[in-house]
Design brief:
Blueprint lengths: L1 H29 L11 E7 L10 H4 L2 E7 L5 E8 L10 E3 L4 E9 L7 E2 L15 E3 L2 E2 L7 E3 L7 E10 L5 E10 L2 E9 L10 E7 L3 E2 L11 E3 L3 E9 L15 E12 L9 E6 L5 E6 H5 L11 H7 L2 E8 L5 E8 L2 E4 L6
Parallel strand pairs: 1-11, 9-15, 12-20
Antiparallel strand pairs: 1-4, 2-3, 2-5, 5-10, 6-7, 7-14, 8-9, 10-11, 12-17, 13-15, 13-18, 16-17, 18-19, 20-21, 21-22
Length: about 350
């Protein structure tokens, strides 16, 4: 009997302590002025960039600056913080944020700096709204009669991140939330290849990409913008010699080695969106003739079905480098029966794009 009573007293004491502790936890969410209750919580935000073709987090290697913005339920800015430099490359990096418990809409623009190719407006805590947080690509204006907008330098890398509703609570002494990032900038490498021994002079060709993708909203959707004309930031030409075994299938046999002459142009562009219609145009500056003019996104998506289990837009967002090889005949005209995109050979005879 004594043993049972002792157990009962111990059980009652344990239950009382559990209830007391439970009440203390609840009090952190309800009684904020209790001096004898330690309700301090450390909030941290971690950034992740694994939305790429390798599915590996490349944040520490690629991202050099992050700007975090938090908006309340009314869409008003309540907090912002920026960090940059070597601290972002440290193992286990996360940003410490001084915020009150509550629900927030988190937005991140990463890659912004004084030397960046993009900018966001200065917004004021407690005043500015979510809709004001737009990101604009820098551009210059040509001296032509139409004063068209031009981007001719290499774009700095830009990322966007968003969590539409994140709850910061007092349920633990530390809370870490993650904001995933999407890369908005792309490199297009265009190669003109001539396999009949005729030299391809890169200076005799003009390469351009046109798109209206220079203004992004807080949710990373494109906003109506003027048409931008992108020009190469890098141009080169070269050649090599390959034997018969290295010739592409279907090009015929060769008794001797073949000369391959190429012209290369690299262009950086903003976010590629399936609904837009950017155009890649190559013009022969000697003759004034258009060598090719193609809908860029539609051609890039020709390879999406080859081993990629994802939507078209996901592929465009994950892939940030594209190599496109076009083949020219001896008169420097495009042989429009096949192209090579990122090592995928696409063959067609007549394609209405």
């Amino acid at each position: 009997m004594k043993t049972v009573k002792t157990f009962a007293r111990q059980f009652s004491f344990g239950l009382m302590m559990a209830v007391t502790l439970g009440s203390a936890v609840v009090s952190c969410d309800s009684i904020l002025d209790e001096d004898d209750v330690d309700c301090s919580v450390e909030y941290r935000v971690k950034f992740k960039y694994d939305y790429n073709m390798k599915y590996a987090d490349a944040f520490s290697r690629e991202v050099s600056s992050v700007a975090l913005y938090a908006f309340d339920d009314n869409g008003k800015l309540v907090y912002q913080k920026t960090e940059a430099g070597d601290v972002l490359a440290a193992d286990g990096y996360s940003m410490a944020v001084d915020m009150e418990p509550g629900d927030y809409h988190l937005i991140t623009w990463a890659g912004l700096s004084n030397e960046a190719s993009f900018s966001v407006p200065l917004i004021t805590q407690g005043v500015s709204s979510l809709e004001e947080l737009q990101c604009k690509m820098d551009r210059i204006y040509s001296r032509a009669a139409d004063g068209s907008a031009v981007v001719s330098s290499k774009l700095s890398s830009l990322w966007h991140g968003e969590v539409t509703k994140q709850s910061f609570t007092r349920a633990a002494t530390q809370q870490v939330v993650t904001v995933p990032l999407v890369k908005n900038t792309n490199t297009i490498r265009v190669i003109l290849q001539q396999m009949d021994g005729v030299t391809v002079d890169v200076d005799k060709f003009e390469f351009t990409i046109t798109d209206d993708n220079g203004l992004m909203n807080y949710d990373n959707k494109l906003i109506s913008d003027e048409t931008l004309t992108y020009y190469p930031y890098y141009r080169a030409q070269g050649g090599t010699v390959v034997g018969k075994s290295a010739r592409a299938e279907g090009d015929g046999a060769a008794a001797e080695d073949d000369n391959i002459s190429v012209a290369i142009a690299q262009i950086t562009v903003g976010r590629l969106v399936e609904e837009n219609n950017p155009k890649l145009t190559i013009t022969n500056t000697e003759t004034g003739e258009t060598v090719l003019s193609i809908p860029l996104v539609k051609y890039l998506l020709l390879t999406e079905a080859e081993g990629h289990d994802m939507t078209n837009q996901e592929y465009l967002d994950r892939q940030d480098e594209y190599n496109m090889t076009f083949f020219l005949d001896e008169s420097m005209k495009w042989i429009n029966t096949r192209i090579v995109i990122n090592d995928w050979v696409v063959r067609f005879n007549d394609m209405n794009m």
